[in-house]
Predict the structure.
Amino acid sequence: MGKQIEFTRPDGATAPGFYAEPDGRPNAPGIVVIQEWWGLNDQIKRIGQQWTDAGYRVLIPDLYRGEKALDAAEAEHKMDDLDFSDAATQDVRGAVQYLKQDSASVGVIGFCMGGVLAVLAAMHVPETDVAVSWYGIPPEEAGDASAIDVPLQCHFATQDTFFPIEQADAFEKKLEAGHVAHECYRYEAQHAFGNEDWDYYDPEASKLAWQRSMAFFEHHLKG
């Protein structure tokens, strides 16, 4: 039920994205959904639809500008070519600003690569009201996690080979040191356990993480 749109980045350039809103609620709270390394594909659109069904306006920035990866090697190449700073401070921020025109509160959620960008949004996008990251942790040089000043929820996989659980533990310690309002959860699962199209999909872990994400946004965006 969504549509392709163009929105304006802070630098004045335009960026593409996929937008959807709940019926009859053009001023509902907003959520920016950030893709995995595959691109803006059908799977991430289904994620967006879940949030629209829950009563949120949704915008998914198309970080690859229409391109999609068909296998892991191509996905890794596209992710490596992505300028994460530009994606966070321009594409994601522009998407948040677009939703903020009609929504009083806007959250950001991302998965894998998008999870990294969700944390960067919490650090570097001042219009963000709340952020949720699924199995994504930015490198230390990307910003000071202890300085995050919005509520942050993180979902980590204990068997994650992309973002080892030790990295997650160190990240959470920084949040604690900065007294950041946060929730961090760990699941006995592998990376991308929430992607139903991926080899390591874990329906039980995914269901629990969804319940927690839904409750977190419900509290901070609708509460």
